[in-house]
Amino acid sequence: MNWKMLFRNLALLLGVSLSVGPFLLLFLVFGALGAYPPYVTYAGLAVGVFGLLALFLGNCDYFPTPWHRHLSRGMLLVLAAAAIYVGHGVWRDSLPTVDDRDLLLWEYEPFAENSKAVRLEEPSTLQLTLAERPRLDGATALYPVYAAFVQAVYPDTYSTSDYTLKSRHHIAECSGTIGAYERLIAQEADVIFAAAPSQAQLELAENAGMELHLLPIGREAFVFFVNSKNPVEDLTVAQIQGIYTGELTNWHQLGGKRQSIRPFQRPENSGSQTALQHLMNGLPLLAPEEEDRITGMDGIIRQVANYRNYRNAIGFSFRFYATEMVTSNEIRLLALDGVAPTQETIRDGSYPLSSEFYAVTAAPVGQPDPREANPFISAFLDWILSEQGQFLIEKTGYVALS
Predict the structure, then answer these.
(1) Range in 24-38, 183-197, 376-390 the model is least confident about
(2) Domain shared by 113 and 164, yes or no
(3) What percent of the chain has pLDDT over 70?
(4) Which of 93, 198, 381, 391 is the most exposed place for a label (fewest CB within 10 A)?
(5) Is 234 contained in some domain?
(6) How far apart are CA 278 and CA 348, in angstroms?
């Protein structure tokens, strides 16, 4: 036995293990945590194994040179595939998104230093004490406006974290439309601010023995947007319906480039998805695009994909969220039936997809609306309809009722 050659090969193997080992460990750890799809983890393992074998066998006299060449080629192929995957992911992640999440909400926390929540120009005509404060929740796109309500009429206890988004006091939550309706029906919130409920949310309330009470407090527009480089600037409501049923599949059919249309949707029972379903008026919707998501300890699951600004994409949201909370010069709002979505066209009703949003309360069936039964909720909602409350709605960027 050639001991010198054996020790040389063992030393080489140890050196390669120390250099490639951390690379393999990272892939194994991130793969176990669900940070990569399984095939990416396997690719990382394959690169490491190919690297070890190619380097070890290529310097070992017991194996012929072709083995070294074949293993080296295999390693290069796996590396090339991994590089393409990672490069595509980097490009994809660089695209602007509109995803209705709470990414920017902290900027509107009431009473916070430099909060973007708007303020009255004079003292509020209503001031609630700590014991009188209704528990609030609502849609992401409406958080800025009810944060302004809180800042106007609730006592300033921000130093005790009463109004932070992660507060344990649950005074001014923002669970999104789905979570807000669930918390209201479970009587964990007193008032929520949202679009009209979906059929599923109405059924959830009915099954819980609860009745929803909707008070219109302002108006907003449901809007569609595309990549700013898309030449299409105006669609009809019928064309929007055609896109989301799958009847229209290429932008060329709508005066654009010869590109397939990539229509994004939102999760079921979200405010914007419910608005789309109302717009479809019973027409069958395409199955939404889905993507892998990482959800804590649950690993990777499939969820409805957030809008991502591909050249051929179309998405939807509410006007304030798309124009104020998500500021991207790379998307453009579409006019519908020749009318652009502005505060003026929402106010005069000429924009075809303008609608009211609500302060929603709930009570067990047969019991009075909390607006009638609870004097503090009644005073708060009456104040929202007053000149000061409507001023805050308008100044935030929505449209007041009057």
Answers:
(1) 24-38
(2) yes
(3) 70
(4) 93
(5) no
(6) 21
